[in-house]
Write a structure and sequence with these properties.
Blueprint (H helix, E strand, L loop, with lengths): L2 E4 L5 H10 L9 H4 L7 E2 L2 E5 L2 E6 L2 E3 L2 E4 L9 E2 L5 H17 L4 E5 L12 H10 L2 E12 L8 H13 L2 E4 L3 H16 L7 H10 L4 E8 L2 E11 L2 E9 L1 H6 L1 H13 L5 E6 L1 E2 L4 E2 L1 H8 L4 E11 L1
Parallel strand pairs: 6-8, 13-14
Antiparallel strand pairs: 1-3, 2-5, 3-4, 4-7, 5-6, 8-17, 9-14, 9-17, 10-11, 11-12, 12-13, 15-16
């Protein structure tokens, strides 16, 4: 029923046109985003055709005999437009498995797209994996999401720090300097997790140049000094906090609260969800209770980031 075709640069425009109309895609799936780290991942993205019609696409890469969708992105999964049906997807997964077997894959790692990112419901793939693949849930990460329309009250400590920020004269700037924020970010990550940001400064500036309306840097200042910042990804009706960090003064004086106040109550009235990202370690088996409590203090509650596996 389907012709399964491996993506190549010749498909660039057709791929991007499909991403633009898919009901569960975000800008992460445009090739200009996916390909910035093409040197780190051996791309094996797939396109599913019915005759001459592009039915659906699957961002993916390969690691040895493993087919992965897609560990280089925040999430992955089958991208579907409004015409894709459940019956179609059941057949598609049968034929996907056959394609993978013929190409010597033995295992699939599949990262589904959290439902808050769906423009319309798009969980046909979850049903197909259950029935056609015998997939099991291998990793579950707890993301924290605010339903912006609900206007859930901030916890008392966040409200107190917001008042401190206002008293201290903290100024929040939209489209602030990434270069000024990145050392603060990496210092935070090094102290807390002995880690560095996934993106280098050069990479995030490149992506910002490609997606100026989707990657927005907010910085908090005392006088002319940056004391905190958040890098936001704008994804349709979702605002995702990709990176955040403060100096010691910024933490003490409420730099994060000043930024979130501006973002949540002033700058994005059309946004339905604010996603703070996950708060787990060791593949979801450890919960960073302090981190998730901080996010829940703004009114956020849990949405799952799930990974499934099956053998071929």
């Amino acid at each position: 029923m389907f012709e399964v075709c491996r993506y190549s640069p010749a498909h660039h425009d057709a791929w991007n046109r499909y991403v633009a109309k898919a009901r569960n895609a975000t800008f992460l799936f445009y090739r200009e985003y996916m390909d910035y780290h093409s040197d780190r991942f051996r791309d094996h993205s797939l396109m599913f055709f019915k005759g001459n019609h592009l039915h659906s696409i699957l961002p993916a890469h390969e690691v040895g005999d493993m087919f992965c969708s897609h560990r280089g992105l925040t999430y992955g999964g089958l991208l579907m437009d409004n015409d894709v049906t459940t019956a179609d997807v059941l057949v598609l997964f049968d034929e996907l498995n056959e394609y993978l077997r013929k190409n010597s894959f033995r295992k699939v790692i599949y990262r589904s797209i959290p439902w808050v990112y769906h423009r319309l419901p798009a969980e046909e793939d979850l049903y197909a994996m259950f029935w056609k693949c015998g997939a099991h849930l291998s990793q579950r990460m707890s993301g924290t999401v605010i339903f912006m329309d609900e206007h859930v009250a901030w916890r008392k400590d966040h409200r107190r720090r917001l008042k401190q920020a206002q008293t201290a004269g903290i100024r929040v700037e939209r489209d602030g300097s990434l270069a000024a924020f990145w050392p603060i970010l990496n210092d935070n990550l090094q102290r807390k997790f002995q880690a560095q940001s996934v993106h280098t400064l050069e990479e995030i500036e490149l992506l910002k140049s490609r997606f100026p309306d989707n990657i927005i840097q907010y910085n908090a200042y005392i006088d002319d000094a940056v004391v905190g910042g958040i890098t936001f990804y704008v994804m349709g009706h979702v605002l995702h906090g990709q990176y955040s960090g403060t100096t010691d003064d910024g933490k003490r004086l409420g730099a994060m609260e000043a930024i979130y106040d501006k973002v949540m109550y002033h700058d994005f009235p059309h946004i339905r969800y604010l996603d703070f990202g996950t708060s787990n370690e060791q593949g979801g088996r450890v919960l960073n209770e302090g981190l998730i409590a901080h996010k829940e203090g703004y009114g956020g509650r849990t949405v799952m980031y799930d990974t499934y596996e099956w053998t071929l």
